[in-house]
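okkk here we go again. third time trying to get the nicotinamide-adenine-dinucleotide bound version out, last two times i messed up the smiles copy paste (missing a bracket lol). double checked this time i swear
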Amino acid sequence: MALISNLTVKLGKNSYKIVIDNNFPFKLKNNFTKIKGYSKIIVITDKTINNIFDNEIYKLCNELKSEKIILPSGEKTKSFKYLEYLMNKILSKKVDRNALLICIGGGVIGDLVGLAASLTLRGIDFIQIPTTLLSQVDSSVGGKTAINSIYGKNLIGTFYQPKIVIISLYFLRKLPEREIMSGYAEILKYALIKNRVFFSWLKNNGKKILKINSNACAEAIRESCKIKSYVVSKDEKEKNLREILNFGHTFGHALESITGFSSKLNHGESIFLGMYIAIKFSIFLGFCKKSILHEYTNHLDKLNISYKIDDYNISASPNLFLKHLKFDKKVKEKKIRFILISDIGKVKVYKLNEEKILLDFLKKEVF
Ligand SMILES: NC(=O)c1ccc[n+]([C@@H]2O[C@H](COP(=O)([O-])OP(=O)(O)OC[C@H]3O[C@@H](n4cnc5c(N)ncnc54)[C@H](O)[C@@H]3O)[C@@H](O)[C@H]2O)c1
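finally!!
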């Protein structure tokens, strides 16, 4: 097994390893010795992944003597309906508290399985094996689990850490281009919030990542996971520092919500848009120079990535946008909190005291 890197999310007794690897994780037992002690192991994946990696998943289930549950693919699976379906399926297999769930999937399956693991019998162990670039650099690490509500994105969930995260570049070879770009949004986010050197590196290596060059992907995943692990280790439950990871997400989630979590706009695409709006808002409020926006747009133009609302054919008004923004989890004491940028690698929290400021901005600069 070609091990590329090994990181740790330091959370006291809830600490866990992130293993970055080239191959399909057949030898799970080598990475996670505790696996032999579980009373039952259930592998959970989605239909698309199961179809593509049928053979590999079959072998893994055989090796672990595990059962398998397959869920539909897509954001709509992150719902009460599928949470209930999944938990009933798990319980029907007569699990006890010593059972293990292995999640093989993107952020949708990861968020849903994490939530089911945290609720089943008041908490059973789970492992993340993320299969999209986005889930490898972001959602599989940090323990945020969620489903969506009619009131907004990720509004129902828990903090519940996996026992290990096993990232395999093997999965990326079959990932559609649109999904690779989606993952790139979160990689770029880490550079923008925390590391200008990483941003400069992305300027030279972005194209290679989008083409799934192994070395470039491994480095981007490692650096992203390193930043995420550091932030999560400092602030597991998002009391302060962790909220910087929401850069671009407050605006992005509102747009996802407006489009009804449909395939019109996937999560990563909403983050490209959200970061574009957040940088513009930062300039509007006088927090950062216009040159930061140029650095952002030049980089995305070179990669042929769209970041404007018109490019995605989304019809919304400033008032509708504001309505959706208000459902965000980042609203505290009725004030929306935005993560804004002052320079590449430096962000700040902004509490909106007057809605008029935001509406003026949206009317002038966004719609
Ligand atoms: N928990 C967190 O901290 C966190 C962070 C960021 C995003 N998220 C959540 O993650 C979700 C988005 O995740 P995503 O972009 O991975 O979406 P996803 O899980 O829907 O995967 C995208 C599509 O790719 C398919 N797919 C997955 N792996 C594949 C592979 N290797 N080859 C081919 N096809 C594959 C899936 O079946 C799906 O159709 C959103 O719901 C978002 O809210 C959570």
